[in-house]
């Protein structure tokens, strides 16, 4: 693959022409006002951003038959960004079955939906794409990201403010102009929002349907918030209101997110989001290749499949790091050594970012002696909730000794969380991300060895 580093652009004081992007003109004008005629650092020795903050390359022209590094980096950031969720259908890959189940639950069953699974498995991306798909079908969609301090009153007032009053059954479509600027929030009193009153208000919605997405619901720290949401779900369902809730969260099961309340469970569809298949991971890489012009060899792909273990976050992160290694070497083909070098950089960052108590645990002699067991447990934890049985770790061997060892590591050592189960307990890593770190470490060691 041939690279081009040619870059031609107008002089700062030259007259604007069609090569200038609006963002670049404004930026250079601001630099002149600040007393700097040229934003380029003196000497050119310090690192610089390689792409414009406008996400438009402007004077970086495509070169037929060549990859222009600046363009490739921008396309790579768009196609394989790991630190941000996917927010558009164009960049979304895999998960067609889960998205179809989501749409069916909402459209055909008229149910409220709970998406649950491990952190980093793609739940937020799913609901963003669901929101875009629903808007295409003329749904009104409200999105709220929950946190420890989330309050029911604040969040649902904001949702109500996004529903125009013209969709109220008591407002005529030919209402005067003043009604056009009002929302359902104008009908809520000054006191705390009551879920029953809110359901009665939402039951008056006509002419559209509404989806309210509560992302990262597991982070809510207020028990009253959860009780109010449960009561709202029940009252919306009882009134056949045209409003449905979609909750997402990290949980071992549905009960952890919404509690076991028989009166609302019949109104909820729970969808577990598990690891991606190799075919779905391949779809992510295919889209990245089409967007960037880069190519992952079959061997590099196989290595990424093994290291990512079905995690969309990991395949994007490792794919990006490997691609950047190749770009630095002015190559457009990503080989296994690029994947290994990228994985080593990721592992170094992850080790440094582990909580101190987790780092100390991994240094204890009894934990070091159990590393083969920990790696087997990490592989077994690739479930929607990250939990597994002793027999999942033992394989064909007797699970008894494995169970005893997992229980020891769950006690005073506190490496695992032991969950009650019938007839056997289930186990889960106490520190989020540790299973991925162990899986990646093992894959790296096996591939490099």
Short summary:
The chain has 449 residues and is of the alpha/beta class. It has helices spanning 22-33, 69-80, 96-107, 123-136, 152-161, 195-202, 223-238, 254-258, 262-265, 278-292, 298-308, 312-328, 336-353, 356-363, 365-368, 371-380, 390-394, 399-410, 434-448, and strands spanning 112-117, 140-145, 210-215, 243-249, 268-273, 295-296, 333-334, 416-419, 426-429.
Give keywords.
9 strands, two-stranded parallel sheet, 5-stranded parallel β-sheet, 449 residues, alpha/beta, Arc Repressor Mutant, subunit A, 19 helices
Task: Indicate the topology.
Elements: H1 22-33, H2 69-80, H3 96-107, E1 112-117, H4 123-136, E2 140-145, H5 152-161, H6 195-202, E3 210-215, H7 223-238, E4 243-249, H8 254-258, H9 262-265, E5 268-273, H10 278-292, E6 295-296, H11 298-308, H12 312-328, E7 333-334, H13 336-353, H14 356-363, H15 365-368, H16 371-380, H17 390-394, H18 399-410, E8 416-419, E9 426-429, H19 434-448
Parallel strand pairs: 1-4, 1-5, 2-3, 3-4, 6-7
Antiparallel strand pairs: 8-9
Please provide a written account of the structure.
- The chain is of the alpha/beta class and 449 residues long.
- Among the domains are: 89-273, 3-Layer(aba) Sandwich (Rossmann fold), CATH 3.40.50; 355-430, Arc Repressor Mutant, subunit A (Orthogonal Bundle).
- It is 46% helix and 10% strand.
- The strands form three sheets. Strands 2-3-4-1-5 form a five-stranded parallel β-sheet, with helices on one face. The chain has a two-stranded parallel sheet with strand order 6-7. Strands 8-9 form a two-stranded antiparallel sheet.
- α11 (298-308) packs parallel to α13 (336-353).
- It is globular and about 70 Å long.
- The protein starts with 21 loop residues before the first helix and ends with a helix.
């Amino acid at each position: 693959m041939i690279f081009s580093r040619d870059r031609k652009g107008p002089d700062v004081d030259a007259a604007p022409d069609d090569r200038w992007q609006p963002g670049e003109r404004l930026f250079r004008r601001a630099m002149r006002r600040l007393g700097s005629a040229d934003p380029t650092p003196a000497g050119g020795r310090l690192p610089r951003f390689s792409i414009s903050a406008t996400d438009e390359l402007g004077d970086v022209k495509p070169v037929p038959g060549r990859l222009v590094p600046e363009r490739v980096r921008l396309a790579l950031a768009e196609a394989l960004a790991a630190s941000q969720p996917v927010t558009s259908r164009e960049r979304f890959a895999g998960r067609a079955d889960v998205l179809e189940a989501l749409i069916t639950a909402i459209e055909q069953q008229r149910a409220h939906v709970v998406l649950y699974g491990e952190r980093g498995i793609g739940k937020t991306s799913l609901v963003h794409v669901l929101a875009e798909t629903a808007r295409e079908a003329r749904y009104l969609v409200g999105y709220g990201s929950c946190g420890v301090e989330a309050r029911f009153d604040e969040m649902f007032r904001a949702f109500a403010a996004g529903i125009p009053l013209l969709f109220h059954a008591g407002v005529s479509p030919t209402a005067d102009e003043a009604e056009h600027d009002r929302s359902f929030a104008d009908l809520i009193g000054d006191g705390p929002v009551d879920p029953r009153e809110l359901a009665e208000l939402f039951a008056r919605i006509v002419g559209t349907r509404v989806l309210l997405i509560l992302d990262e619901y597991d982070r809510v720290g207020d028990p009253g918030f959860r009780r109010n949401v449960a009561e709202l779900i029940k009252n919306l369902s009882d009134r056949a209101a045209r409003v449905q809730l979609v909750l997402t969260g990290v949980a071992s099961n549905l009960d952890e997110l919404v509690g076991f309340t028989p009166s609302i469970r019949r109104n909820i569809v729970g969808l577990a989001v598990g690891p991606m298949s190799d075919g779905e991971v391949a779809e992510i890489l295919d889209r990245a290749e089409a967007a960037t012009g880069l190519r992952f060899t079959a061997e590099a792909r196989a290595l990424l499949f093994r290291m990512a273990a079905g995690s969309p976050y990991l395949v994007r992160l490792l794919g990006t790091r490997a691609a950047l290694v190749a770009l630095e070497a002015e190559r457009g083909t990503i080989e296994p050594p690029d994947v290994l070098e990228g994985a080593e950089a990721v592992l170094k960052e992850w080790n440094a970012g582990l909580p101190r108590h987790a780092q100390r645990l991994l240094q204890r002699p009894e934990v070091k002696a159990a590393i083969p067991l920990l790696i087997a447990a990490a592989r077994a934890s690739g479930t929607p909730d990250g939990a597994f049985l002793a027999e999942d770790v033992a394989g064909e061997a007797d699970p008894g000794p494995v169970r005893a060892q997992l229980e020891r590591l769950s006690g005073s050592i506190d490496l695992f969380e032991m969950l009650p189960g019938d007839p056997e307990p289930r186990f889960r890593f106490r520190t989020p991300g540790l299973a991925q770190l162990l899986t990646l470490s093992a894959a790296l060691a096996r591939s490099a060895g």
